[in-house]
High-affinity branched-chain amino acid transport system permease protein LivH
Amino acid sequence: MVLLDPAFAFLYQLGDAFAFLVLAACGLAVVFGMMGVINLAHGEFIMCGAYVTVATTRAGLPLPLGILAGALVAGAIGMVLERLVIRHLYGRPLDTIVATWGVSLAATQGMLILLGSSMPGVGTPLGSFSLGSYSYSTYRVVLMLAALAVLAGLYLAFNATRFGTLARATIQVPHMAEALGVDTRKVYALTFGIGAALAGLTGGLYAPTMTIVPTMGTTFIMEAFVTVVVGGADIFLGTAPAALVLGAVRAVLTSWQGQLFGQIGLLVAVILVIRVLPRGISGLILRERA
């Protein structure tokens, strides 16, 4: 049991880091990896999901339904944003950076003006369990399972459904898809909405574990971008391995020297991986397959 305690503690920390990176990155991977849109407002969609989750839960809705409401509201706002702003900027990545950065600033300041600097939270549910001399949050285990479920759901949505086929065709060869009768504008809007909804889901899932403030999206945005960049263009081949590698680095260094060294090690690992694998982990996997 003496040896089991630190081993389980490390695995728990690894699973927690993996879940955080996967959930933070999945929505961005859909928008950036599949659509080529660099969405700097990704953190604000996460913040939106958290605020809606907390508001609906405090109004009497069960937490799972509050999380679902947060995802749906973020997805709806994402589709509106795609229609009004993003749709006119496809193929212009630098312009999407400026536009979504502006949306990010407006959303953060707007929430600060409307709702103040913070919002009362809902508390972490499910309590904790003990193993040996350590105590662990049960809800963190739920987050790990949620990350795996999101990965599986995304894979099925984009590989086993008609919408997934149309989405991949539209994103890869949009002119041919449109010539065959596909409503590419609708596909783009739905795909961007899915990315925004995944961000809102992340915010809702992590809302019980965090302080609810307008700038909370910045907690996720750096890890989301580095995970997507390390994973590469293919979200199904890249996101999970990238999250596992970066999560392992972060867990090892955090358990050794603390949270700050974990963050530094994460960034150093990203620099090394990009230097060795400029197309990310998925690029290496696809090259090996070829």
